[in-house]
Amino acid sequence: MTAILSYAAFTETPEGGNPAGVVLDASGLDAPAMLKIAADLGYSETAFVIARDGVEGEYDVRYFSPEAEVPFCGHATIATGVALADRDGTGTLVFHTKAGTIPVQTESTNGGGITATLTSVKPHTEVVDSQLLEGALLALGWTNDELDPDLPPRIAYAGARHLILAAGTRERLADLDYDFDALKQLMLEHDLTTVDLVHREDDTTFHARNPFPVGGVVEDPATGAAAAAFGNYLRETGAVTPPATITIHQGVDMGRPSLLIVTLDGEQTEVRVSGRAVAM
User: 226: buried, middle or exposed (CB in 10 Å: 19+, 13-18, 0-12)?
Assistant: First the structure.
């Protein structure tokens, strides 16, 4: 029988963060079986892990939402890193994913928990065409006037593609009531994993919400892949100057508060995303 673990990522308590399924030995499972497990579990993503023969600390990892396989998932990566550390002890791991190779460092905290830090694949951003922007705003019920002019719309990638839209006020971000089917169709047409809705509180503190209709999920409480993409977006748009540490609060409006820490190095383009995870 396949052992399925449940971890909440980017939180110190099981009541917060983003739940993820973790299967630490998926060697006997094919893709349809993985998808069925993910669908039955109902979390936004489940990670399936296969140890590489003869290579300690290296794993092939696949990620499935309830509706489809995704190339990379940040919160499930953090959850998997902590689950492996709970089983084997902390240290350095390497995850081989469909998006590329993801180093993961785990370490014990002073309070006795475990923090995992992932390093993204090489990120980039793209300009958003007017048709996509207009369609997204219409599906969200937003207007151009409600966007933050200092944080322009972009598509950002750090293992998966995300449309980044910055709300001019915290109230606009908090009032999320969108057309699920319309946004899903638009995202499928443009190969988007989530829409990363953000609001800037101060120079390095942000609030985020992530609609995820393409995965069959209304909203993600914590999105590590989007956080990595957003970190590089901040660097490429000049909104922050590396080295910098960015704090992202997500899931608050859902009642599952999450804390994501994004680190931008002055020398590297890759982005590091850190967080706690706890068994549920």
Answer: buried
